[in-house]
Write a structure and sequence with these properties.
16 helices; Amino acid/polyamine transporter I; 465 residues; globular
Length: 465
């Protein structure tokens, strides 16, 4: 078989291949989805986008972004219910577009989850330090409060380092314990956000909403391009399909319900925030807590700050799961060393992958400033969304009769083309520098594939491996 033929060979996934135990039900999936989606976005991006891009019309930006991401959630639900395997978008692409395109999707998912974990750990560290300073007057030494940058006096972000290490340690204990921990954290998170809304309602001043679109509609749409990334995280649910009970039913429920809950919270919280504080004062890293302090509600402000710390913890758990399961799928298919795909005999987790990715992510979180590299999270994720949009169209036209028909995207004749158009528009709006970094990362991935993956793929004949 020549190289061109190998690049476009497709894989047929069978659930009998799975070695995972099925422990996750609908509630656990909803909680994982909410835990992964509602994170730093609702505590940070809401205030900054309102102050600099949309004003009180940030509410409309959340709605527009929800439409674009919501269609992708329906697509994930359709593919995940009929192809219930680890790997998410990577595995779906493998069945329709072939091995090389699947590898590129998986390579960019590694980028998404791999950068989000240390990036969010850094955000968690900032919130935690702020909480310790405001609540207890404890100040962390400058040398231990940021990534390695001697010119600014920082050498290590100690708490980011410790948190990333703690998350991956938790992941080695098994998906059930991880899911239970996440459910507890999400319950606290929802309570904190409800507290913000309830207390904020009595301080609403409609005069703050009088200039509803201070930056015009262009600002509203621009904020949508930023805010769409506040919804990222729900897609990690597709990576645990093999660990889900009654996946044809529960996975679509988890994807759709978690995104609906997240959207409603984003809309309500952003409305209350801009109604209680003038939008031009919200360009701060802790907008929700800041608003409570401004309203002379210090106890609620501290509670919100603590809630932010808890919220970001649940995001780390979900993204850590996504990272390890994508690498597991790539290893199981031979595109990365198959020895990495070994599952621990007691915890039934891909422990080698968890340890290796955990060490790398922990090092990055503690010592390296991500800077503009964080933008790669955005384009890598949108690329995966776009490819699964193409995948579902192809699979609908060439459906394998052996695949179970689970959830189907409603009004597909309209929503599936709209999904591709919206994602293309959003990706087009990304900066030239981001595109160049994306291309460079993809070239590195292509080289790994041609020098290793194509030679070791499980689809090769035995004598070729």
């Amino acid at each position: 078989m020549d190289y061109m033929a190998k690049m476009f060979r497709k894989k047929e996934y069978h659930t009998s291949e799975s070695k995972f135990e099925k422990k996750l039900g609908a509630l656990a999936l909803v909680m994982l989805g909410v835990g992964g989606t509602i994170g730093a976005g609702i505590f940070v991006i809401t205030g900054k986008a309102a102050a600099t891009m949309a004003g009180p019309a940030i509410v409309l930006s959340f709605i527009f972004a929800a439409i674009a991401v919501g269609i992708s959630a329906l697509v994930y639900a359709e593919l995940g219910s009929s192809i219930p395997v680890s790997g998410g978008a990577y595995s779906y692409t493998y069945t329709a577009l072939g091995e090389f395109m699947a590898w590129l999707v998986g390579w960019n998912l590694i980028l998404e989850y791999g950068l989000i974990v240390p990036a969010v750990s850094t955000g968690w560290s900032g919130y935690f330090r702020g909480f310790m300073e405001n609540a207890f007057g404890i100040h962390i030494p400058l040398a231990l409060s940021g990534p390695f940058d001697p010119s600014n006096g920082t050498y290590m972000d100690l708490f980011a380092f410790l948190m990333s290490g703690a998350i991956f340690t938790l992941l080695t204990f098994g998906i059930k314990k991880t899911s239970t921990t996440n459910t507890f954290i999400v319950a606290i998170k929802l309570a904190v956000l409800i507290l913000f809304v309830v207390v904020g309602l009595k301080h609403i001043n409609f005069a703050n909403l009088s200039n509803f679109t201070p930056f015009g509609w262009q600002g509203v749409l621009g904020a949508s391009s930023l805010i769409v990334f506040a919804y990222l995280g729900f897609d990690a649910l597709s990576t645990v399909a093999e660990e889900t009970k009654d996946v044809q039913k529960n996975l679509p429920i988890g994807l759709i319900v978690s995104l609906f809950i997240s959207t409603m919270l984003y809309i309500v919280v952003s409305f209350v925030l801009t109604a209680i504080i003038p939008y031009n004062k919200l360009d701060v890293p802790d907008a929700l807590a800041f608003a409570m302090y401004q309203l002379n509600e210090p106890v609620v402000g501290l509670t919100i700050a603590l809630g932010a710390v808890i919220t970001i913890t649940s995001v780390l758990i979900v993204m850590g799961i996504g990272l390890t399961r994508v690498v597991y799928a790539l290893s199981r298919d031979g595109l990365l060393p198959k020895s990495l795909a070994a599952l621990h005999p007691k915890t039934n987790t891909p422990y080698k992958i968890t340890i290796i990715t955990g060490i790398i992510a922990t090092f990055v979180a503690g010592f390296i400033s991500l800077g503009v590299l964080a933008e790669l999270i955005n384009i890598g994720t949108l690329f995966a969304y776009f490819m699964i949009g193409v995948t579902v169209v192809i699979l609908r036209k060439n459906r394998d009769p052996r695949l179970k028909v689970g959830f189907k995207t409603p009004f597909a004749w309209f929503l599936l083309p709209l999904n591709l158009i919206l994602l293309a528009v959003i990706m087009y709006g990304l900066s030239f520098e981001t595109w160049m970094r994306f291309i460079a990362w993809s070239i590195i991935g292509a080289l790994i594939y041609f020098f290793y993956g194509i030679k070791h793929s499980t689809l090769n004949a035995p004598e070729e491996n």
